[in-house]
Design a protein that fits this description.
The protein is of the alpha+beta class. The protein has a domain of about 100 residues: Immunoglobulins (Immunoglobulin-like). Helices cover about 25% and strands about 30% of the residues. A 5-stranded antiparallel β-sheet has the order 4-3-6-7-8, with no helix packed on it. Strands 1-2-5 form a 3-stranded antiparallel β-sheet, with no helix packed on it. Helix 1 runs antiparallel to helix 2. The longest helix has 23 residues.
Length: about 160
């Protein structure tokens, strides 16, 4: 056993912390989202769908579309509908990497769409990387271990 917990009070505190940790991750679907998922579908127009990690649509989110070679000034701006969707028709005379930025109340994301000779392909570089998730999980676990060690120390 890693910890030498002497008092029943320390054992209760550690048990309550572990229970809260488990409940937090079991109830993660109910927590406010911070990440954003963006998708698009090719039709006669490009459809960008923006929603939070929880699946709720980003209704009313601000959208800025940037044409290739013009990253400083939006080619088109608009707002997502009540389902978190935004439609636009890229100029086929401007092939290259189009960028669509979606923002609402401090949350947002960016999706890149490659347009070359009529073919539209998404870039799959959205969300947290595996390394970021691993570092966040390690920080949470280390916080619980440090708290448990603090409460399990011998008092003079």
């Amino acid at each position: 056993m890693l910890l030498n917990v002497q008092s029943a009070g320390c054992k209760k505190i550690i048990l309550i912390m572990l229970l809260a940790y488990v409940l937090l991750f079991l109830n993660a679907g109910g927590v406010s989202a911070h990440g954003v998922e963006l998708e698009f579908t090719e039709r006669s127009t490009v459809e960008v769908t923006a929603r939070y990690d929880s699946g709720d649509p980003m209704a009313g989110a601000q959208v800025a579309v940037f044409a290739p070679g013009s990253p400083a000034e939006p080619w088109l701006t608009g707002v997502c509908d009540s389902s978190g969707r935004f439609f636009f028709v890229p100029d086929p005379a401007i092939p290259g990497l189009w960028e669509v930025q979606v923002r609402l109340a401090g949350h947002g994301g960016l999706i890149r769409i490659e347009l070359a000779e009529g073919n539209i392909e998404p870039s799959r570089s959205t969300g947290f990387s595996g390394l970021q998730i691993l570092i966040m999980a390690a920080a949470v676990i280390w916080g619980f271990v440090g708290t448990a060690l603090f409460y399990s120390r011998k008092r003079a």
